[in-house]
Amino acid sequence: NQINSSLSAQRRKALEIKKQVDAVTRNLNIIVGKYNAAIEQLERTKAAIQENQARLDEAQDRRSQCQEIVNGRVGSIYRHGKIRFLAVLVRVKSFREFLVRLEMLKRINKEDIRALTEVKALEEEITERGKLLEEQKAREREVVADLHTNQRMIQSELVKVGGLLSGVQQEIARL
Fold this sequence. Notes:
Elements: H1 2-80, H2 85-90, H3 95-174
Helix pairs in contact: 1-3
């Protein structure tokens, strides 16, 4: 009788432990799912950071090129003094030369305006991309922190399962 009642008690205890193991296993599966989702998000964030960094580098290179054009124009004005458009147009010998010089001045002016406009646009893009890059890196740090938290939770759940299983194995050995 005593052995039977002890066995019945142990069976109930084993059933309770099995329920606990099942609950911990379900919780572990949820945590592992979150962990895997966080890893995928981290990969996407890293890819976005790389793409943004590449575009930022391109914008900075293009800005440098445009800045060189602007600096060359400013240097030319400094070395040669301001070119008076009217003086350039007045010193012509023919109407055809007048039209050629007028077209040349228009092109120079148009190129100067384009370069300055592009420098301004690139400066804005660089500022925006810099902010976005910082936000992406902050997001990456958050995801990494979540990963570490999930790793600790997984380890904790595994320790629980291991303890429960160890207790059951010891009880089985004792019986």
